[in-house]
Amino acid sequence: MRRKRSPMTLLSRFQPSASGSIIDFDPTASCFEIEGVSLAYGGKPALRDISLRVPRHRVTAFIGPSGCGKSTLLRLLNRLHDLNEEVSHSGRILLEGEDIHAPEVAVDELRRRVGMVFQVPNPFPMSIYENVAFGLRLQGGLTRRRMDDIVEWALQSAALWDEVKDRLRASAWSLSGGQQQRLVIARSLAVRPEVLLLDEPASALDPISTLKIEELIRSLKSQLTLILVTHNMQQAARVSDYTAFLQDGQLVEYAPTDTLFTNPSLRSTENYITGRMA
Amino acid sequence: MRRRLARSEGPWAWLAAGSVALSLLMLGGLLLLLAVRGLGHFWPVSVTLVELEDGRLLAGQAVRELPLEHRAGRERLYFTGNRDLDGHVWHWLPVDSIVASERPAELVVLERRRHGAFIGRLVAVGESDALPSAQSREAAWARLEARLAELGGLRDEYDRLRRDVLRPLIRRLDARPDDTAARQALAEANARVRELQQAMDGQAALLESVDGRRLVQPLDEVLRAWQPNAMSLGEKAGAWARGVWRFLSEGPRDGNTAGGVWPAIFGTVLMVLLMSLLVTPFGVLAAVYLNEVAHQGRLTNLVRIAVRNLAGVPSIVYGVFGLGVFVYGIGGTLDDWFFSDALPSPTFGTGGLLWASLTLALLTLPVVIVATEEGLARIPVQQREGALALGATRLETLTRVVLPMAVPAMLTGVILAVARAAGEVAPLMLVGVAKLAPQIPVDGEFPFIHLDRKFMHLGYHIFDTAFHGNDVQAALPLVYATALLLVMVILVLNLTAIFLRHYFRSRHGVQPRP
Amino acid sequence: MIEPPNLASAPRSPWRRRFDRLATGLIAAGGIGVIVAVMAIGAFLVVEVLPVLLAGRLDMERVRVALTPMAWGTLKAALWAMLFAVPLALGAAIHSALFMTQRLRSRMKPTLEMMEAMPGVVVGFVAGLVMAPWVERHLAGVLTLMLALPLGVLLAAGLWRRLPSGWRRGLSLARAGLWLVPWLLLLALVTFALAPWLEGLLFGGDLRVWLDRELGLDYSTRNAMIVGVAMGFAVMPSIYALAEDALSGVPSRLGEGAHALGATRWQTLWRVVLPAASPGIFAAVMIGTGRAVGETMIVLMASGNAALMSLSPFEGMRSMAAGIAVELPEAVPGSEAYVLLMLAALLLFLFTFLVNTLAEVVRSRLRRRYRWLGGAA
């Protein structure tokens, strides 16, 4: 089901038919395939006909001015918009080749596979251990030992284990902001998602915590696919492999990060990048 | 000119400050009045012996003093007791007609089952058929105290026997008249009761009023005796504490003018407990539906406003609803179906514990719904999204994250509901309180809680005693004490709610926001 | 690198989802059920009354004769209560919203909330059995006090201006709500000491006799004045709380603008804050009226319950709520008296529901306005 493309998207360098010279990954290695997605809030369009592929085991960043729709697109990927009755959308989103909006897809299972970390750390008002075990308990069928193992593993993966191993029973709200955010990442990792969506995960944190989160994002690449929404150019440049630039709900340019930041093909992209980076 | 204006705020600002002061004054005055009168009643007041101009002698406790109606001077009210001798227990005496007053240590006050208090002198104590006509004061008092202590023990056993043995046995026999074992047990118990009664009989005290009239008082009718003028401060404090305890633990006597309010406390607490059991799940359910499940639109908002408004509908209207629907409607139908052999005397077709609790639950439902909804709305959307993003279903998000966080709000709502229900009297007048409920609606007999029975209620007790009693003057101190008790309970509940709300809000602020 | 433990995800999802749908449905059904049950009150009253009225089985003249005195009594009680409560509540609200320090205000609000929690039966008892006979004996003193208190407060204000500035800082206007309490107490004592002398001077020794002779006013022990004070005491806190919310919710930018132009706090209040908050204050008064109309125990215990139709503050009345409480338990279901009382209950329900809805609508509109002005309402 191919839709008519708007001229803007035609200009974007990523096209499924394009040669691998610009996008250096094999189309079969894509995790998410977004095809002609549009979305409107109560009749007001927020995303227009967006198509792109997200490569597996890479960090893809969505950048763009605020209000450009990057977070909206991200929340569409694990169907968090289902809660909002005012949202209507069209187009297809395939996760590993399956349409995520197909009626036989269970939304809770989808959300387990596609984890999400939000702008403001949102640990539950429980102990650190219980926060990480939350998703596991939903799945059920785990012995205590196994649960302990997975919690430890998740906290280690999120580079938090050494800081909290002596106080797993302490309230998660007693942690600092940066620790809380890593705890939330550990919580998401514990249910073994295939994709992790990060919605400006460091924007509420201090520089040192931000650095830790960025290191963490790079190290997680080997385990899963990461999609990062950020308004911070340097951050996108530092951690991502591919970058998509969105403006006014449209995909302007999508390219390997190096290319996009050093040699943007479009004037608007260049303006945005230089204007912010100067 | 401008400077002066900027410095002074003008008269209206001061009047506004004055209204705050007046409100505080009224609140403080009310609380102080209740506390002083309610607690003061239990203090063993000294008995004054007064001699009047015309030579009459009177002994009594001074209660209060007022200016005379149509001439100068004041008059004083004395509680003199001795209803069986004088026919009345109060005396208003013009202050200037009192020639002399003193407080002789030998005056005694007896609290009796019938005829109320006796105030006068103790002459002798002994067997009723061989009462000595004179005895030393110390000996008589010692004998009286010993006998009263003995009687107290006997009375306790008698009450226990009646409550725990006799009454259940009689009920058992009513149901199965051919139960020989029960009949046997009943006979034994009755024999023991007769023994106890005999043991209690037999002794009497010879009493003399201050103006010299004598009377023989059987001691089994005497509950307590004290010599207020001979008591030290410590003894009085002890007597005061025992008086407060008796007020809290005993049932009313003498047409509610004496005794305590234990059945009313019990009835109030039981009704409020039942009400909370009903109102909590339903209130939370409705709030969760409104806030979490229902489509948020114009209709939901309308329902929300309507629920809020129902909190402002007068309680008496809820009482009317309870009477019409619960008592006459559902209760009447239940009687027709299950208790038709008891008709025309109604079982559930009349006011009772269940209907009162249901009515008050309905009355307080809006309070719980509104408080819970506020708590739910206060929970940040990130918490819900966090749970959903981990693969939780809507129900799991609700039960594992949202509801636990809303617990303090629910508790606040329930406590406010309880505080409101405990003070609400008007609907109860329609659906189920009794002036005097001899039986507490809980006993050892199946089904243990008797939802169809009437019960006593602190608030109604105040109304009834104050307005329908025979001797309001005598009942007044107890009404003050009951009112104080009710206000204390409600204030404590409200303070708990305020504290919880405060705690809840500050706890949400604790989460570090970097 | 740590080895990721293998999470064998058990496929229990279908169950969870089905359970989720079922439970959501149950919550919806239960929630709707509860809300319908709460709403059933109005429906019940209509069902009880309307068929009888429509069938014309009720003589309209009888209805009029039976209900008019009760409706009159209800409105009279509410009127006297509001006369007492509204100035007091608004004064207190203005003072605590605009003049008090934040610390004091955060203590004052719960204290006055306590006042709201006072059970009606206790207030009614104190009013009917303690205050009423006492006021009857000290009528002249009480009436003088009503004049003396505001005058005394103004006197305090005048004296305050002459105090040395150190004293003035200690006894600041922000804390006047507290330090005026002993002053008012003193005023009351002085008034009651002087009252008999005043009574002798102006009214020939006995005010009640004078009222009867000169104005033709009967004095009954339990009367509208007592009810007004007692019920005013009971409804004042809810008016105060709502009005205070409305006043303190007025965006501070507005007030600061006026201050910057050199207005005093009182002028700011009068010209800027009060007009902005007036819908909220209106709502507060409405809700207070609703409560005063429906309050049962205070009227029952402090009004004497005689079905009189006068406006005199010294005579009693019988309100609908009190009438229902006294008569309904004795009325036989279906009888004329029963239907009449049901009609009274329906009227009470409709009146309070309408008044509250009006207040709620006004309040939500006000909230929107504040949000638009950037306040923190």
Automatic annotation (TrEMBL), chain B:
<feature type="domain" description="ABC transmembrane type-1">
    <location>
        <begin position="265"/>
        <end position="497"/>
    </location>
</feature>
<keyword id="KW-0472">Membrane</keyword>
<protein>
    <recommendedName>
        <fullName>Phosphate transport system permease protein PstA</fullName>
    </recommendedName>
</protein>
<feature type="transmembrane region" description="Helical">
    <location>
        <begin position="310"/>
        <end position="331"/>
    </location>
</feature>
<dbReference type="InterPro" id="IPR005672">
    <property type="entry name" value="Phosphate_PstA"/>
</dbReference>
<feature type="transmembrane region" description="Helical">
    <location>
        <begin position="401"/>
        <end position="422"/>
    </location>
</feature>
<keyword id="KW-0812">Transmembrane</keyword>
<dbReference type="Pfam" id="PF00528">
    <property type="entry name" value="BPD_transp_1"/>
</dbReference>
<comment type="similarity">
    <text>Belongs to the binding-protein-dependent transport system permease family. CysTW subfamily.</text>
</comment>
<feature type="coiled-coil region">
    <location>
        <begin position="144"/>
        <end position="206"/>
    </location>
</feature>
<feature type="transmembrane region" description="Helical">
    <location>
        <begin position="12"/>
        <end position="36"/>
    </location>
</feature>
<keyword id="KW-0175">Coiled coil</keyword>
<keyword id="KW-0813">Transport</keyword>
<dbReference type="InterPro" id="IPR035906">
    <property type="entry name" value="MetI-like_sf"/>
</dbReference>
<feature type="transmembrane region" description="Helical">
    <location>
        <begin position="478"/>
        <end position="500"/>
    </location>
</feature>
<dbReference type="InterPro" id="IPR000515">
    <property type="entry name" value="MetI-like"/>
</dbReference>
<feature type="transmembrane region" description="Helical">
    <location>
        <begin position="351"/>
        <end position="371"/>
    </location>
</feature>
<feature type="transmembrane region" description="Helical">
    <location>
        <begin position="261"/>
        <end position="290"/>
    </location>
</feature>
<keyword id="KW-1003">Cell membrane</keyword>
<keyword id="KW-1133">Transmembrane helix</keyword>
Automatic annotation (TrEMBL), chain C:
<keyword id="KW-0812">Transmembrane</keyword>
<feature type="transmembrane region" description="Helical">
    <location>
        <begin position="272"/>
        <end position="293"/>
    </location>
</feature>
<keyword id="KW-0472">Membrane</keyword>
<feature type="domain" description="ABC transmembrane type-1">
    <location>
        <begin position="71"/>
        <end position="359"/>
    </location>
</feature>
<feature type="transmembrane region" description="Helical">
    <location>
        <begin position="224"/>
        <end position="243"/>
    </location>
</feature>
<dbReference type="Pfam" id="PF00528">
    <property type="entry name" value="BPD_transp_1"/>
</dbReference>
<feature type="transmembrane region" description="Helical">
    <location>
        <begin position="138"/>
        <end position="160"/>
    </location>
</feature>
<feature type="transmembrane region" description="Helical">
    <location>
        <begin position="77"/>
        <end position="100"/>
    </location>
</feature>
<feature type="transmembrane region" description="Helical">
    <location>
        <begin position="180"/>
        <end position="204"/>
    </location>
</feature>
<protein>
    <submittedName>
        <fullName>ABC transporter permease subunit</fullName>
    </submittedName>
</protein>
<dbReference type="InterPro" id="IPR000515">
    <property type="entry name" value="MetI-like"/>
</dbReference>
<keyword id="KW-1133">Transmembrane helix</keyword>
<comment type="similarity">
    <text>Belongs to the binding-protein-dependent transport system permease family.</text>
</comment>
<feature type="transmembrane region" description="Helical">
    <location>
        <begin position="337"/>
        <end position="359"/>
    </location>
</feature>
<keyword id="KW-0813">Transport</keyword>
<dbReference type="InterPro" id="IPR035906">
    <property type="entry name" value="MetI-like_sf"/>
</dbReference>
<feature type="transmembrane region" description="Helical">
    <location>
        <begin position="22"/>
        <end position="47"/>
    </location>
</feature>
<feature type="transmembrane region" description="Helical">
    <location>
        <begin position="112"/>
        <end position="132"/>
    </location>
</feature>
